[in-house]
Amino acid sequence: MNPPRETSTGGWTPIAEEAERAAKVLHPDANFMPRPTRRRVLTVANQKGGVGKTTSTVNLAAGLALHGVKTLVIDLDPQGNASTALDVDHRSGTPSVYEMLIGEVSLADATQVSQQSPNLFCVPATIDLAGAEIELVSMASRESRLKEALTSEALDELGIDYVFIDCPPSLGLLTVNALSAAHEVLIPIQCEYYALEGLGQLLSNIELVQQHLNPALKVSTILLTMYDGRTKLADQVTQEVRNHFGDVVLKTIIPRSVKVSEAPGYGQTVLAYDPGSRGAMSYLDAAREVAERGVREQR
Ligand code: ATP
Ligand code: MG
């Protein structure tokens, strides 16, 4: 941990520091993040379960939205975890990503505004999505149905700058739809022993999608999550991922933090639940890095 430093309120205590950090989240006017040069659509994918896909999706989205960037989360996981964390209605029968995929409702009809920010939108997942992997098999253009629903016109209408698509832990048709609809892939990697296992399979699926469905797709961002500074292993994994993927990996690493795991239980992102916590600040830093890349990079 960094040693305490003098805060703008003149104090030296950890509490004053935490208050200052919270103020950055809660009073973001002075810290606006840049809008991207062009709209960015990022699929958050890793077929390994529990690596922080949903947590990263909702907290990065909230970080951007709280700082003036209009952001849409598409919950493409039948578990509906992103919908829960953003506290949007996702009872069976609610217009959702399922109806969007089968062409029954438009993006605008399925989109809800999250209570957490007027800039934060969500297309929820209901339990109806659980059958979609099978239903999609017999449908026309089964790999591109999400892409067809996410037209530029529909996104322009809502004024969306960023779209994050939260994938289920599999490489099935839902994930293929997400990869076909996106410009970029964001891969969260947990700083643990088996973290890199299965990554090869994900990368070869991404290559297949590039070859057949979406040539412009690229792995633009890797986010290291659930870092536990007490273990040597976490540093080894971090180093290995950085050696392998270089600048694609965000500088910010998300620490393992109880606050991050508690937040969804309250229907909140960690930025709303405990804005002064280390977890909130690291997601905010990661969101700022994502935003800065969106201005710098020519796509
Ligand atoms: P799934 O594959 O099931 O969709 P996922 O990849 O979306 O999982 P999450 O649901 O985001 O992973 O995270 C898995 C679990 O780890 C959750 O209980 C979450 O609250 C917890 N978690 C995520 N990030 C952190 C963190 N930085 N610190 C502590 N707990 C975390
Ligand atoms: Mg998830």
UniProtKB/TrEMBL annotation:
Pfam families on file: AAA_31
Protein origin, superkingdom: Bacteria
AAA domain location: 40-219
Organism per entry: Prauserella endophytica
Source organism phylogeny: Bacteria, Bacillati, Actinomycetota, Actinomycetes, Pseudonocardiales
Record-linked InterPro entries: AAA_dom, DNA_Partitioning_ATPase, P-loop_NTPase
Name under which the protein is recorded: ParA family protein
